[in-house]
């Protein structure tokens, strides 16, 4: 109990000194103590309250008088407070009445201040918006005057600098939405301008190319004139006076060349003058600014490739006229001149790699087109003009940096074609010359006519020079004409070789090769065809042999002519030689063969009119008329051979050989034809009278052979052509069968050239003739026994001949 009382005092102290919010734990400790502690605490608490009440009462009693004094004072103040309130109220009323005007003015000032602030804000905002609006107005103006590149720059400034400052305004949002549309509009407009530009350069390509080719040609002409001027100055004469004259003349010439060149330069327009390139620059800049530069480059290159394919597509009739080729080349040159200009004035739109690739593609197509269309050209003048165009075309594009070696290689192919057209043209010229020729020696009445002939043809004959006028040259009119045409062909061939950038040696080689083709193919073919023509007789053939001899001799002059043109000596190792010698030799051989053939044909014509009576009992006692005509023809024919050239030993030997060969061939053919006539299978029987008549004809042939119709035969060489006939006829005329059969096979046999089969065939025909004759003459009884004996002899000889023939066949 004594312990609990101090504890309660402590709790009460804590309650008095502790904040009300923290009393809970203290009170809880009251209930956690011993039983009945609560009651004891309450008692202690009541005691404490009573103590405090007593203290309060003591204090109130101590301060009561002061409280009463204060109340009394307060009542006094109350009366004064009422007065003060009335005064304050009155003052307030008067103050309110006086402040109403001030309040009104103040409110007006406040409103003006707000307006001023708003105006300032508006001005500030307008100052931000005005540059935007000005730039937008500028953009619209640039769009209206088609300054699209500047418009894009303005848009860029609007987006990056101006619009972000006023992005909160609605008009700004509208502007932002319109800018992409304006960009697309600019792209479409610039692309439309580019398409117009592409169409424009497509239309003007031929004119641009024509202008560029003219400029290249003028530059080449000027360079050539300048080079000639330098050459003249280099080799000028050492005499001072003459030197000054030459210098003044050369200066005048060169000055005129410069003046002409300047005039041409003033007249000739450039690509920039003909085409406005601003659309492509503008479009390139626009797409570059928009970040679509690659798209534009791809589109431009794609469109230009399409145009290139169109330009490279030739017209089907291009090969008919030179204007077709010129237009084709002008369009191509114009196309690449534009590309070269774009390459040098823009960066990246086209590259050197792109132009080289495009040129290689175009070059392959050009070569294929020219190779095809040039093959249709049959006119050498057109081919030559085509070559000149190709050279100008190549020189022009080479000046712009494009490789053109393949074009010059193509020119060598076209040169072959040109030579072919020349060969065809000259083939017609040669034919016309041969058809117009009279194939007789050229008559010259005086020295002037003689000079005219030798000025055209290098003819030299000292023997003929000694003769007085009038006289005849051995060749016919076609010889100088052919020679002149060969020289004209060389000139024509040389024209193609000019401007091909080839050395004199190569040009010399080309001229000689083309001339060889003319001689060995064209002229040779014309000569061969001429020789084979039916209307060409023996006289004409003889004259052709004479002509080819002189043309052969003139070949060395043609070689000198080519050497003088090209300044290449014939002693050069690689210099080709003309093959005219073999050409004219072959023509002579063909003419000689044709002479032999025509002689044989003529002999056959005479043989065909032979009309033997194979059953005649006796001969007419004279040779047949057809044979005498044939012999007379042969005599007159062989006299023609005396006109063959024999002004030197070689020609004399040649003419004698031709005459001898022709004569021998004619005699052999005559002998063979007569033999075939006897042995003809359709001829069944022959009388002895017919044999006698035939023998008279053969005698005339032998007399002709022995009369030496052509000089130069040794002994009876020509008569040996009839030896087979002679021995066969002698065998039947003498009826010397015993000798024939006894000496058969011996080298000393009298009838060595008589073949058993030939003798058997003719004997059987004679036997049948005798049988037929016996039947007709059976009224003469005295002849029956002799006929029977002769027939028995014939039968015996026939058997022996058959045995010989069978023995020969078995041996074979």
UniProtKB/TrEMBL annotation:
<feature type="domain" description="Exocyst complex subunit EXOC6/Sec15 C-terminal">
    <location>
        <begin position="407"/>
        <end position="765"/>
    </location>
</feature>
<dbReference type="InterPro" id="IPR048359">
    <property type="entry name" value="EXOC6_Sec15_N"/>
</dbReference>
<keyword id="KW-0813">Transport</keyword>
<protein>
    <recommendedName>
        <fullName>Exocyst complex component</fullName>
    </recommendedName>
</protein>
<dbReference type="GO" id="GO:0090522">
    <property type="term" value="P:vesicle tethering involved in exocytosis"/>
</dbReference>
<dbReference type="GO" id="GO:0005886">
    <property type="term" value="C:plasma membrane"/>
</dbReference>
<dbReference type="GO" id="GO:0006893">
    <property type="term" value="P:Golgi to plasma membrane transport"/>
</dbReference>
<keyword id="KW-0268">Exocytosis</keyword>
<comment type="similarity">
    <text>Belongs to the SEC15 family.</text>
</comment>
<dbReference type="InterPro" id="IPR046361">
    <property type="entry name" value="EXOC6/Sec15_C"/>
</dbReference>
<dbReference type="GO" id="GO:0000145">
    <property type="term" value="C:exocyst"/>
</dbReference>
<dbReference type="Pfam" id="PF20651">
    <property type="entry name" value="EXOC6_Sec15_N"/>
</dbReference>
<comment type="function">
    <text>Component of the exocyst complex involved in the docking of exocytic vesicles with fusion sites on the plasma membrane.</text>
</comment>
<dbReference type="InterPro" id="IPR042044">
    <property type="entry name" value="EXOC6PINT-1/Sec15/Tip20_C_dom2"/>
</dbReference>
<feature type="domain" description="Exocyst complex component EXOC6/Sec15 N-terminal">
    <location>
        <begin position="44"/>
        <end position="213"/>
    </location>
</feature>
<dbReference type="Pfam" id="PF04091">
    <property type="entry name" value="Sec15_C"/>
</dbReference>
<dbReference type="InterPro" id="IPR042045">
    <property type="entry name" value="EXOC6/Sec15_C_dom1"/>
</dbReference>
<dbReference type="GO" id="GO:0006886">
    <property type="term" value="P:intracellular protein transport"/>
</dbReference>
<dbReference type="InterPro" id="IPR007225">
    <property type="entry name" value="EXOC6/Sec15"/>
</dbReference>
């Amino acid at each position: 109990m004594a312990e609990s009382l101090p504890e309660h005092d402590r709790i009460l102290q804590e309650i008095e000194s502790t904040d009300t919010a923290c009393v809970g734990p203290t009170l809880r400790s009251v209930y956690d103590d011993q039983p009945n502690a609560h009651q004891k605490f309450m008692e202690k608490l009541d005691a404490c309250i009573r103590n405090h009440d007593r203290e309060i009462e003591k204090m109130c009693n101590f301060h009561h008088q002061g409280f009463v004094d204060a109340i009394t004072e307060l009542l006094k103040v109350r009366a004064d407070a009422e007065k003060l309130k009335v005064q304050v109220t009155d003052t307030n009323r008067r103050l309110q009445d006086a402040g109403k005007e001030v309040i009104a003015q103040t409110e007006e000032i406040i409103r003006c201040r707000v307006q001023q602030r708003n105006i300032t804000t508006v001005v500030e905002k307008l100052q931000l918006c005005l540059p935007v609006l000005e730039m937008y107005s500028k953009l619209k103006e640039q769009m209206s005057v088609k300054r699209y590149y500047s418009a894009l720059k303005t848009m860029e400034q609007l987006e990056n600098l101006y619009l972000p400052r006023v992005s909160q305004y609605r008009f700004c949002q509208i502007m932002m939405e319109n800018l992409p549309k304006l960009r697309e509009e600019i792209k479409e407009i610039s692309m439309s301008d580019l398409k117009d530009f592409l169409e424009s350069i497509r239309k003007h390509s031929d004119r641009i190319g024509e202008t560029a080719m003219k400029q290249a040609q003028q530059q080449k002409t000027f360079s050539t004139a300048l080079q000639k001027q330098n050459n003249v100055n280099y080799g000028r004469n050492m005499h001072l006076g003459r030197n000054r004259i030459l210098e003044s003349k050369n200066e005048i010439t060169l000055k005129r060349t410069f003046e002409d060149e300047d005039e041409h330069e003033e007249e000739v327009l450039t690509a920039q003058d003909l085409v406005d390139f601003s659309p492509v620059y503008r479009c390139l800049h626009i797409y570059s600014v928009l970040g679509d530069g690659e798209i534009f480059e791809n589109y431009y290159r794609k469109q230009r490739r399409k145009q290139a394919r169109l330009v490279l597509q030739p017209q089907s009739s291009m090969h008919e006229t030179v204007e077709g080729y010129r237009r084709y080349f002008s369009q191509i040159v114009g196309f690449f001149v534009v590309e070269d200009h774009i390459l040098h004035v823009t960066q990246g739109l086209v590259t050197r790699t792109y132009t080289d690739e495009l040129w290689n593609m175009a070059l392959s197509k050009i070569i294929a087109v020219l190779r095809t269309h040039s093959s249709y050209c049959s006119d050498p003048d057109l081919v030559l003009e085509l070559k000149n165009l190709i050279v100008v075309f190549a020189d022009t594009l080479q000046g712009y940096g494009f490789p053109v070696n393949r074009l010059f290689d193509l020119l060598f192919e076209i040169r072959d074609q040109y030579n072919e057209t020349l060969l065809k043209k000259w083939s017609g010229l040669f034919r016309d010359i041969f058809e117009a020729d009279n194939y007789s020696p050229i008559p010259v009445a005086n020295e002037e006519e003689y000079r005219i002939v030798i000025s055209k043809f290098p003819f030299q004959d000292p023997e003929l020079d000694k003769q007085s006028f009038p006289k005849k040259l051995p060749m016919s009119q076609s010889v100088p004409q052919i020679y002149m045409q060969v020289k004209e062909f060389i000139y024509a061939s040389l024209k193609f070789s000019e401007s091909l950038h080839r050395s004199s040696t190569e040009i010399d080689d080309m001229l000689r090769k083309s001339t060889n083709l003319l001689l060995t193919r064209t002229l040779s073919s014309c000569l061969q065809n001429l020789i084979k023509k039916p209307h060409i007789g023996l006289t004409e053939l003889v004259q052709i042999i004479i002509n080819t001899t002189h043309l052969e001799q003139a070949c060395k002059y043609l070689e000198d002519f080519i050497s003088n043109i090209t300044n290449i000596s014939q002693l050069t190792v690689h210099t080709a030689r003309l093959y005219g010698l073999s050409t004219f030799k072959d023509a002579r051989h063909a003419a000689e063969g044709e002479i032999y053939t025509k002689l044989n044909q003529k002999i056959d014509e005479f043989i065909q009119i032979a009309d033997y009576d194979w059953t005649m009992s006796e001969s007419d006692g004279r040779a047949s008329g057809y044979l005498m005509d044939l012999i007379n023809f042969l005599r007159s024919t062989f006299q023609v051979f005396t006109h063959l050239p024999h002004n030197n030993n070689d020609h004399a030997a040649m003419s004698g050989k031709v005459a001898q060969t022709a004569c021998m061939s004619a005699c052999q053919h005559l002998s063979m034809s007569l033999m075939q006539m006897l042995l003809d299978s359709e001829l069944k029987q022959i009388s002895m009278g017919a044999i006698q008549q035939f023998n008279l004809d053969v005698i005339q042939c032998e007399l002709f052979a022995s009369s030496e119709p052509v000089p130069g035969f040794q002994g009876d060489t020509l008569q040996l052509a009839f030896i087979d006939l002679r021995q066969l006829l002698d065998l039947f005329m003498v009826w010397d069968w015993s000798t024939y059969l006894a000496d058969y096979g011996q080298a000393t046999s009298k009838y060595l050239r008589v073949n058993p089969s030939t003798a058997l065939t003719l004997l059987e025909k004679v036997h049948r003739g005798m049988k037929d004759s016996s039947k007709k003459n059976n009224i003469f009884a005295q002849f029956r026994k002799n006929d029977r004996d002769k027939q028995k002899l014939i039968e015996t000889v026939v058997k022996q001949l058959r045995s010989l023939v069978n023995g020969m066949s078995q041996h074979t």
